[in-house]
Amino acid sequence: MVARILTAEISHETNTFNIRPTDIQDFQDRYLLDGPAAIASRGEKNTELAGILEVGRRNGWDHTHVISASAGPGGRVTDRAFDTLCAPVLLAAETGGWDGILLILHGAMVTASHDDGEGELLRRLRVLTGPDLPIAVTLDPHANVSAAMCAQAQILVAFTTYPHVDIRAAG
Q1: What is the CATH number of domain 4-170?
Q2: Mind listing the pLDDT tens digit for each residue in 54-72?
Q3: Which of the residues in the chain have pLDDT under 70?
Q4: What's the rounded Cα separation, in Å, for the pair 78 and 26?
């Protein structure tokens, strides 16, 4: 049996003291890539995505990557930007038939409406997938790991070095 794995990357380190909101343009300015473009750009580098792709090839996964997005550290992510970034992940998850979901997150996203952006994304996924589908999350070492994140994901893994030389290994 071939495992069907869904992956996505949404990364932001929010500073709630920063009064300038982070909008979709901030993600576009750093990178906002659909799945194939993300794999082409980030799939062979020291990234979690590269590590996931490597393990997937080795194990014969049927792998679908839907988005890679990151903005530099900044103020709260606008609800519009958050919803835009989450949409392809939720749409893909809704199709069903997945054996697992792997999310590449930072772990410190705060949105205009949610103090725990990652926890909110995971909550939305659980509404679509139910409680039993395995969800794994990679995180930055200084993530704000919440009870919601722990309740919604079975696996949380952080890279551990600074400079971040073990990102691919975490993936």
Answers
A1: 3.40.50
A2: 999 999 999 999 999 999 9
A3: none
A4: 11
Structure-block tokens of residue 114: 């949610």
- Mean pLDDT computed over every residue of the chain: 95
Q: How many CB atoms lie within 10 A of CB 132?
A: 7
Domain locations along the chain: 4-170
